[in-house]
Amino acid sequence: MQDLTEPILELVRLASTDLPPDVEHALREAVVREKPGSAARGALETILTNVEISRANSTPICQDTGTPIFYVRHPEGWSSRKLRSQIEGAVVQATQRAYLRPNSVDSLSGKNTGDNLGGDYFPTIHFEEAEGDTLTIDLMLKGGGCENVGAQYSLPYARGGEAPMQAGRDLAGVRKVMLDAVYQAQGQGCAPGILGVAIGGDRGSSYYASKEVLFRKLDDANPNPDLAALEERLTGEANQLGIGPMGFGGQTTVLGTRITSLNRLPASFFVSVSYMCWAYRRRRMVYKDGVVNYS
Amino acid sequence: MHQITLPMDDATVRSLTVGEPVLLSGVMVTGRDTVHKWLTETFIKKTRQPAGDDLKVYEAIKPLLKGSVIYHCGPVVAGLDSGNYRFVAAGPTTSIREEPFQGDVMRHFGIKGVIGKGGMGAKTLAACQEVPGVYLHAVGGAASLIAQTVVAVLGVYKLDFGVPEAMWVIQVKDFPVVVTMDAHGGSQHTVIEQQSRAILVELLSRP
């Protein structure tokens, strides 16, 4: 079996330091919507300059290089045990080269392991066997600021107070709690954000799917017309909230919305929202016939 | 643009108002979750006894913090092996987690500015009016750009807290921030939250 430690290290470098083209494009479209001289415009201009500096110097776009989340789809016969050890080796080297911040902290002692390893879930690696002879590794780096403002709702959901709502078990209810999640996040998740939303599942699979759907590109249409319509409506309405980049106020609170659905139990109806910051770091590596390609 | 050299005097702090962009230069110290908890428990509320180098660090950081700013930041640092430290990526972390501690930490050390992102709450705003102080919002995620304004790493305390949680003493030049909470009780975060809530209520009423 081929040793892929070096190519995976390059995948980590790319993910941390070079924002994907579709995300940068969305940010460039957003900047011209904001009023010249406004704090919102200034924030987006700073963000785009930072993206260019990071790419030119191979330095992390954001110092919170997050939890490295790997999705590996491998052909029959590959050893997931060896792949895990190669991914871990690449993560340790990426930390030594300052592409990643040492981010793995023992929750009981508070001690940082210093090399981004620790237990079975750091880094997080999902394996799946796929048909054919192509190996694909997707990597997402999701920082803590945006992870902390993620939310999960159990429908029906009702509350009183200053922003009362009643959200039922249908797409109208889903829309309401999604809007609430954006409002609750304010600028804390480094707006403008991207919403990954899963409808259904159990609590665990629902959150899992809400992250997985964030691997879809921003310009990739949802195959389900109802969800495509809800994605578009939600992005538009979230931007009416006026929270704006960094919570400075302005036109752009959300760059895009990605929704998926899972089967659920008759008794449960979860809506899980994973908020991704503007520093939407995801990259793909494809290995076939000894050749590695990145996108 | 308003340029400020640290430490700041009270008149300078009071001259700043919400919405104003500022470029900061001078010496500041990073500190986030572990630091705020440690400072509060060990030196302010005194619910735990100082241990190890606690007292030595306390005496060293007091003059650095007085009149200066604390930066909510967990940087990516190169040169960890050699001790020839260099900031590679150093954007702000979310500040609201320090809300239980920040006001008391500002009063205790005479800290006149807090840099972070996302804003803070009523307790910190009250401390900004008393000390006086300001909350300075950096652009979240702009880590490579901000690291370029860090011209020197002068030292580090509590590295045993881990690289992101340690207190890094840094010299900056033209560090870009926006005032979002001022010494006169103004908070842009309160305004945006109230405005967006009214719009949310309207949107929720639609079918």
Describe the overall structure:
The complex is a heterodimer of chains A (295) and B (207). Chain A has 295 residues and is α+β, with helices and mostly antiparallel strands. Chain A has 2 domains: 112 residues, Dihydrodipicolinate Reductase, domain 2; 131 residues, no CATH class. Chain A contains 8 helices and 11 strands. Chain A has a 5-stranded mixed β-sheet with strand order 2-1-3-10-11. Chain A has a 4-stranded mixed β-sheet with strand order 4-9-7-8. Chain A has a two-stranded antiparallel ribbon with strand order 5-6. In chain A, helix 1 crosses helix 4 and helix 6 runs parallel beside helix 8. Chain A is globular and about 55 Å long. The mean pLDDT of chain A is 97. With 207 residues, chain B is α/β, with parallel strands linked by helices. Chain B has one domain: fumarase (Alpha-Beta Barrel), CATH 3.20.130.10. Helix content of chain B is 35%, strand content 27%. Chain B is built from 7 helices and 9 strands; from the N terminus they run E-H-E-H-H-E-E-E-H-E-H-E-H-E-E-H. Chain B has a 5-stranded mixed barrel with strand order 2-3-6-7-9. In chain B, helix 5 links the parallel strand 6 and strand 7. In chain B, helix 2 crosses helix 4 and helix 4 runs parallel beside helix 5. The longest helix of chain B is centred in the last third of the chain and has 17 residues. Chain B starts with a strand and ends with a helix. The mean pLDDT of chain B is 97. Chains A and B meet through helix 3, helix 5 and helix 6 of A and strand 4, helix 6, strand 9 and helix 7 of B.
